[in-house]
Design a protein that fits this description.
Length: about 475
């Protein structure tokens, strides 16, 4: 790694930054290092499993309420050689918003205005702290919606979704966050404010810097405003469930969807262990309906014709197919988002690999081998419409010391990453690299590829001010 991608650390300088910001900008809230900010040390993916002691210290945190205040914070931090960790709601799963005590966290939670909604242009202009669900609640009376819907959509921010190029369930029909972002206003490491992209849907003047910032995990700059694409609320939505007699039968059944004339909005796949786990945690009876589940959402005009064609294709593939009522469909989607959890103490590794969707079966078929080799349990729920798996690798703790985590869990996870890469996949589909997956990223990217990414980082942030040690 080049010497300019990670800033040197100076714990004493954080207090100087806090003091300088308070003196020059008394209206800007800045919390110093202390117990009140201990939650800002971690994101969801890196938070300790047990509650932190009351005396745990957290990093200094600034709460800007305008782009100008973000610019000021960046300039002052740069003058004192203190690195910055941009943070949305902290719902990330890869350590992208974790911070040390010698860094300054810049929270975007007060940059939460919906600046403009233009139904005629089909866009909204929002600040990064706007919650995904809040934007859609605002748009609903206008007959519009914002398509990206990560599992954390009820609590995650648009800025955080942009940082990781978040996906979610609707990717099969509407794509990931990048497909919904037209323009970004970004504060760079020298404190300048630049706009990249276009308000218009078309625009090819210059390099596509918008796509460069989407998914960059805060290592290139701080997004302070985004122009995003909106869609009309569909005239109809319908949930189709297709239960199969085995996991592999269900995976084979996915091909019938791809080969049908229907383009679903959502295609989710649950293997047998996942259905069993949902039933145990949520007290449901999904496993009684089959050993694997393909859950589909259709939308738009011709919903009855879509339902008939897709049901016929899935039935021919061996499924028991049901066009669910609105109530039952809603319940199934709630189980998809919130139905899983631990019913016994266990060690856990969650993954976010993605493969060409035609190779999903190849990955699932290796789970038994991993279980036998590493003495772990492996299951996965997938965004099958775009090949994004969320495997869970677990091992019961039993009478063991919970802190004595077996190395076999991480070894199994690494082997599963290698399996995904071998079939043309990637180490992360939507959660990002953060701190957790940097070693896995190196398995996928060549040294020259990594060098090119670091050169881009150095060009925009030569002192390594933003989120050092993350993503690349």
């Amino acid at each position: 790694m080049s010497g300019t991608t990670e800033a040197p650390t100076h714990p004493g300088r954080v207090a100087e930054v806090v003091g300088a910001l308070r003196q020059a900008h008394p209206g800007l809230e800045v919390c110093p290092t202390g117990t009140a900010t201990r939650a800002f040390r971690f994101d969801t993916g890196t938070a300790p499993s047990s509650e932190q002691p009351s005396g745990t210290i957290g990093p200094a945190v600034a709460f800007p309420a305008s782009a100008a205040e973000v610019q000021t914070i960046v300039r002052v931090a740069s003058e004192h050689n203190v690195s910055i960790v941009p943070r949305g709601a902290g719902t990330g799963l890869s350590g992208g918003a974790s911070a040390s005590l010698d860094q300054l966290v810049v929270s975007t939670e007060r940059l939460n205005r919906i600046v403009e909604v233009s139904p005629l242009d089909g866009v909204a202009v929002v600040e990064p702290g706007v919650i995904n669900a809040a934007l859609n609640a605002h748009l609903e009376p206008l007959g519009l919606f914002y398509a990206p819907d990560p599992a954390s959509w009820e609590i995650s921010t648009i800025g955080g979704n942009i940082a990781t190029n978040a996906g979610g369930l609707r990717c099969a029909g509407y794509g990931v966050t990048r497909e919904s972002v037209l323009r970004l206003d970004v504060v760079l490491a020298d404190g300048s404010l630049v706009s990249v992209g276009h308000r218009s849907v078309k625009g090819v003047n210059g390099l596509d810097l918008t796509s460069l910032f989407v998914g960059s995990e805060g290592v290139l700059g701080i997004v302070v405003r985004a122009t995003v694409r909106l869609r009309p609320v569909p005239v109809a939505r319908r949930t189709i469930s297709a239960f199969f007699p085995s996991t592999l039968d269900g995976l084979d059944g996915l091909d019938s969807i791809t080969l049908s004339p229907v383009q679903p909005t959502v295609v989710e796949f649950f293997d047998e262990p996942s259905l069993t786990a949902i039933d145990a945690f949520s007290r449901t009876a999904l496993r009684g309906r089959g050993a694997s589940l393909v859950l589909v959402e259709l939308d738009g005009y011709g919903i009855d014709e879509q339902t008939a064609d897709l049901s016929a294709a899935l039935t021919a593939a061996g499924a028991v197919v049901t066009a669910e009522t609105d109530k039952d469909g809603h319940a199934l989607w709630e189980l998809r988002r919130h139905g899983r959890g631990q019913t016994e103490p266990q060690w856990f590794v969650g993954e976010d690999i993605a493969v060409p969707k035609s190779r999903l079966r190849d990955v699932y078929s290796r789970f038994a081998e991993l279980e036998e080799r590493f003495d772990v349990r492996v299951s996965a729920v997938s965004h099958a419409g775009d090949g994004n798996l969320h495997p869970a690798i677990t091992k019961p703790i039993g009478d063991a010391d919970p802190d004595d985590r077996p190395a076999s869990l991480d070894e199994a996870a690494t082997e599963l990453v290698r399996i995904a890469l071998a079939v043309g996949g990637t180490v992360t589909g939507e959660h990002g690299i953060g701190t957790v997956k940097r070693e896995w990223a190196a398995l996928e990217l060549s040294p020259r590829h990594l060098a090119a990414q670091r050169a881009l980082k150095d060009a925009l942030d030569p002192a390594g001010l933003f989120n050092p040690g993350k993503a690349i």
